Amino acid sequence: MNEITMKLNMDEAILAALREDITSEDITTNAVMREAVQGEVELLCKQDGVIAGLDVFFRVFVLLDEKTTTEFFVKDGDPVKKGQLLAKIRGDIRVLLSGERTALNFLQRMSGIATYTRQVADLLKGSRTKLLDTRKTTPNMRIFEKYAVRMGGGYNHRYNLSDGILLKDNHIAAAGGVKKAVEMAKEYAPFVRKIEVEVETLDMVKEAVEAGADIIMLDNMTKEQMQEAVAYIDGRAETECSGNVTRESVSSLVSIGVDYISSGALTHSAPILDLSLKNLHRL
Predict the structure, then answer these.
(1) pLDDT by residue (tens digit) across 67-101?
(2) What domains does the chain contain, in order, with CATH numbers?
(3) Catalytic hit among 135, 168, 180, 193
(4) 198 included as an active-site residue
């Protein structure tokens, strides 16, 4: 998920968020600001972290008034510190006030994900294992959240159900077993698509290898089971470790030697990065 893809898709989501927050008018702002007055407000960081989503943040104000301007002092992916001035936004004070919460909601959420991802990714430094996200994202926020993972140093797993084949436990049950599920996937899918299989036992690992799976996901297995599975696979398929992977548990998984570690926690459990708009004044 890169900057271009995000820019092509962000307006619809931002407009929906603005409509959620402003159904008819911003009655508070309109009460204290009866006419257009130019002003400036500062974006400040209130805790250490990694910033992500600056374009989304600014786009909120531009969609309310295209004449809004900004001066950024950081870029997405940069580490930021408590008390740091990140940007100055200038424009109609009514726009600055009405867009404030929506803009911060996007930026705080995305920066929180980037921060948490960076913390986990740092624990994998020096290994060949890549950190992946999952589809466990906030509805209608996936494009932003997966972008934030990349800004934090992680990698994106499949974007959605149309993006790749992942045969999970219920798919395998529906097909009648690992071998049958892989055979059906190979018959149906274009040859350019990789086939990933989720397994929970060593017997399933063996069946997935024999069926010719491209990627084998070791799901909720013990460390010892995963080590045995990786040794058995022996490079015949790529390997992925998944299941309740968090910042606290990832260090113990590095030595297993899998190609990928996927973590839903990157998007579903990352706390926001505390940011604020302060020092609003007229120009």
Answers:
(1) 999 999 999 999 999 999 999 999 999 999 999 99
(2) 3-120+271-282 (3.90.1170.20), 123-268 (3.20.20.70)
(3) 168
(4) yes
